[in-house]
Specification:
The chain is mainly α. The protein is about 70% helix and about 5% strand. A two-stranded antiparallel ribbon has the order 1-2. Helix 3 packs antiparallel against helix 4. The chain is elongated.
Length: about 130
């Protein structure tokens, strides 16, 4: 899973140090893992028709990482509990996070492409 360094904005795989600037990312990795764990627990509760605990775990996951997956699970838990106004808010959050994620992926690809172009230009200048 990709993680963006808060110091230099470099996209990194789940490493404990940024590959560009060396910033310690271990706390962010732990937060991401905790959010993923809360999502797994929420899913289990939802499968067991335990909407209250599913919603609680989805909210924990959302507070740790505002992900579309957390919002979708909270939406489903609210539907299960017949909390329709809350379900509508979670649905809107899920949709907005999914569209933001798509935009972020495009921006990330553009940034990586620009980095490669810059490196190629520097190498070309250096070899002249």
């Amino acid at each position: 899973m990709e993680m963006v360094c808060p110091a230099c904005n470099k996209a990194n795989d789940e490493e404990t140090r940024c590959s560009r600037c060396g910033t310690d990312l271990s706390a962010l990795v732990q937060i991401r893992r905790s959010a993923d764990q809360a999502l797994k627990i929420a899913t289990q509760h939802l499968k067991q028709n335990d909407g209250r605990n599913a919603l609680h775990q989805a909210e924990i996951a959302w507070r740790l990482k505002n992900s579309a997956a957390a919002a979708r699970l909270a939406f489903l838990a609210c539907l299960h509990l017949q909390l329709f106004e809350a379900a509508t808010r979670w649905y809107e959050l899920a949709v907005s996070r999914e569209s933001n994620l798509s935009e972020a992926k495009v921006c990330s690809r553009l940034c990586q492409s620009n980095e490669r172009s810059e490196r190629a230009a520097i190498n070309k200048i250096g070899s002249s």
